[in-house]
């Protein structure tokens, strides 16, 4: 008499593993892209939040608080905006890079801006993207749309995100990622 054994055959197990591998190969790149897109959008929101706080400060005081570069919690720039103009002041972008803020004369000529007389109410807020390195200067006041880019691949998340006086001068305009 034969005793029947319960369990899976080797072929059945190999088929299941192959199916799981194929699904993982299809889904993981899309998940990684979605995470990078979410980080980029959240960083853009932070840049808008900082720019709005600066605009509100200018509206109330007539000038931007002085800043030329990165800032940390507790410095003069940070304390001049927090907590009255901005409740939760972001100091790092979503890729753990620093935000760069330049106000007044410190904003002259940066990132392709060429305002000869920026005034005390001019400002630039920037994030250098996923790679944390400044990209090439692509903004031209003659053609401001030229510096807006289309996100087509993972390297597109390395692009800068830059706002000048409350307007995007380097930012994504569309997403057309295909995997």
Explain what the structure shows.
The chain has 2 helices and 6 strands, in the order αβαβββββ. The chain is α+β, with helices and mostly antiparallel strands and 179 residues long. Strands 1-2-3-5-6-4 form a 6-stranded mixed beta sheet, with helices on one face. It is elongated, with a radius of gyration of 24 Å. The mean pLDDT is 85.
CA radius of gyration: 24 Å
Q: What proportion of the residues form beta strands (DSSP E)?
A: 15-25%
Structural class: alpha+beta
Helix proportion range: 25-40%
Count of the separate structural domains: 1
Q: Strand arrangement, largest sheet? A: 1-2-3-5-6-4
Strand tally, please?
Answer: 6
Terminal-residue CA separation: 55 Å
Tell me the overall shape: elongated
Instruction: Give the rounded overall mean pLDDT.
Output: 85
Low-confidence stretches: none
Task: Return the string of H and E elements.
Answer: HEHEEEEE
For the report, how would you describe the main beta sheet?
6 strands, mixed
- Quaternary form: single chain
> If helices are DSSP runs of H or I spanning 4 or more residues, what is the number of helices?
2
